[in-house]
């Protein structure tokens, strides 16, 4: 039993008085706190059970069947879907592209966001305006951003090819192989304002006294940034790495950038942008294989758990948590 769980003097006095007078004891302060805690967290708990646990359990059940979403003539196949995906070369090719995209896009977005955060953290005029303008792209919905980039890089009427044509350069098929992968990376870097805001919050939490002491000792700006700022930002960088990895392997932006990007035009996605979620999308909506697609999603879920665990394991010695040692003992 912890200190917080011990009854207070008021609670003990109220209980003793109730026993002496034979009256019904009052609800203790600890009980009222517990009730208040569960009352305020109940919306999240109910939402988590209904919107997360229930769909995941349903998808797990579907992964053992041949259900197609419409026909009642489905059957239980056990691990048949999982055996099929393990022997499906398209699954592993798309998973490899998703992994390559994550390895490329996550470091680039973190570096871009950190660079912008360092820039807007300096004492500049209209600093608030610059922060707002740099963060605005992150607020744009992914559908709007995808359609905007599709119009911008259209081979026939896009503004990018218009500029190239003005300088006498032939139009480039940006939305086809092998250029489509670069357009996809541009969409990620364009929304680096979200990473910038988180990095900016971490930069403002770095004690200024450490920077002043480093300057007094004659350390350069780069040495101060590398030896003081980055170690203190390591928890923020770890958070951005994990969340960025999870978001990158689940991206559906290639579908929006496809030349005929609609539900039936999944096959028009360029091969270089045919990532794992594109394969899942094709199995769900183009082929109607709900059971097989659910197995693909559960494979992705397990892989994300494994990769996240490995990231935490191999970065445990490189992440510096600025926590009071006395607070860790409590």
Jot down its keywords.
330 residues; mainly alpha; 15 helices; globular; disordered N terminus; disordered C terminus
Task: Describe the structure in your own words.
The chain contains 15 helices and no strands. It has 330 residues and is mostly helical. Helix 4 (89-120) runs antiparallel to helix 11 (221-248) and helix 4 packs across helix 13 (276-286). The longest helix is centred in the N-terminal third of the chain and has 34 residues, at 29-62.
Q: Name the overall outline.
A: globular
Number of strands: 0
What is the structural class?
mainly alpha
**Oligomeric description of these chains:** single chain
**Weakly predicted, low-confidence segments:** 1-6, 324-330
Q: How is the biggest beta sheet arranged?
A: none
What is the count of helical runs?
A: 15
The portion of residues assigned to helices is 55-70%
**How far apart are the termini?**
13 Å
Sheet-strand content, in percent, reads under 5%
How do the SSEs run, as a string of H and E?
A: HHHHHHHHHHHHHHH
How does the SSE layout of this entry go?
Layout: H1 9-21, H2 29-62, H3 80-86, H4 89-120, H5 127-139, H6 142-152, H7 159-166, H8 180-190, H9 193-204, H10 208-216, H11 221-248, H12 253-257, H13 276-286, H14 290-314, H15 325-329
Helix pairs in contact: 2-14, 3-14, 4-9, 4-11, 4-13, 5-9, 9-11, 11-14, 13-14
């Amino acid at each position: 039993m912890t200190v917080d769980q011990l009854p207070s003097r008021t609670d003990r006095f109220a209980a003793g008085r109730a026993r002496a007078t034979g009256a019904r004891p009052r609800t203790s302060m600890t009980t009222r706190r517990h009730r208040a805690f569960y009352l305020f967290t109940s919306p999240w708990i109910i939402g988590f059970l209904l919107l997360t646990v229930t769909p995941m359990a349903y998808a797990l059940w579907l992964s053992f069947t041949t259900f197609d979403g419409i026909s009642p003539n489905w059957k239980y196949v056990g691990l048949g879907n999982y055996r099929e995906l393990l022997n499906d070369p398209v699954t592993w090719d798309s998973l490899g592209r998703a992994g390559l995209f994550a390895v490329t896009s996550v470091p680039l977005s973190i570096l871009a966001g950190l660079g912008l955060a360092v820039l807007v953290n300096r004492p500049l005029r209209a600093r608030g305006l610059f922060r707002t303008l740099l963060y605005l792209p992150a607020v744009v919905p992914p559908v709007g951003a995808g359609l905007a980039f599709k119009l911008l890089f259209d081979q026939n009427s896009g503004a990018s090819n218009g500029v190239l044509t003005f300088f006498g350069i032939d139009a480039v098929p940006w939305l086809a192989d092998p250029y489509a992968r670069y357009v996809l990376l541009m969409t990620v870097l364009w929304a680096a304002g979200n990473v910038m805001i988180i990095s900016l919050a971490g930069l403002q939490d770095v004690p200024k006294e450490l920077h002043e002491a480093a300057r007094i000792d004659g350390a350069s700006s780069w040495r101060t940034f590398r030896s003081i700022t980055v170690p203190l930002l390591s928890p923020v960088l770890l958070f951005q790495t994990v969340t960025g990895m999870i978001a990158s392997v689940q991206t559906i932006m290639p579908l929006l950038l496809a030349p005929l990007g609609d539900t039936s035009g999944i096959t028009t996605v360029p091969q270089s942008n045919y990532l794992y979620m594109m394969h899942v999308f094709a199995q769900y909506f183009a082929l109607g294989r709900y059971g097989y697609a659910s197995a693909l999603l559960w494979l992705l879920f397990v892989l994300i758990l494994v990769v996240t665990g490995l990231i935490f394991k191999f970065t445990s010695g490189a992440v510096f948590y600025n926590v009071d040692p006395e607070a860790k003992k409590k």
